[in-house]
Write a structure and sequence with these properties.
Length: 279
Amino acid sequence: YGKNTIKFLRLHKEGKKHFVKEVEVCAHLRLTSPQEYLEGNNSLVIPTDTIKNIVLVLAKKNGIPSLEQFAIDICNHFMTTFCQVAYVKTYVQEVPWQRLHEDGVPHIHSFICVPDGIRFCEAEQCRNGPLIVFAGIKDLKLMKTTQSGFEGFYKNEHTTLPERHDRILCGELFCKWSYGECKNFDFDCIWKKIRECILEAFAGPPDCGEYSPSYQKTVNCIQMLVLSRVSQVQVIEVVLNNTFYNVVDMKNLGLTNDKEVLVPVEAPYGSCACTLGRK
């Protein structure tokens, strides 16, 4: 049991300069005895309101040096404070606030919310077991308008999809990776490096791009690049939900539409997922 969607903004000040972290936290516990379920005995139950208050107090006392460290702090607190806690899992996701710049100059106290992917992390621990940390990015919308196709696929009497060697590749990406047993990592630096790998593998070189024969191959390219460059990552999961665009037929309007006006296909949409780990 636990408390979900604990939302708050943590404001940190260094002189006149302000720093913000707005997060949403879910904290779940498993106790050493199921008596509250089986017998209605609540003597070991930590109220979910207490769980919420603990999260807020930890944010006040420790700040949020990184999402991962804050999740670790929450796990450590419940494990060291309550002997009846057998397992704790913490999920933290961040609102994407970025410092506002005016003519290239960073503003000291103003921010803009940029929807370029939501950072999240998870930490979980069993009593007498290792602390395991996951991190990721979700709701990252990506598109490239060429250098993508889909050909040579299996066909039978139900196949109506035409082969394409030049199409728009667009999707919403979810990526989650495991660090294995927690160590003293620079989580912020690693997260930024992985995000850069995702964008590079998706898009290819900026002057020419790189051809993608399928969504599946693009997913694998992302995973391989991350594993090759970020040694701390042990396992990486990528899910890419596809958005298809159909070319509008303008013949009745007396116009030729050479893939210049397209409409998105909202539903149904395709999806591919893969989990890849080191040997």
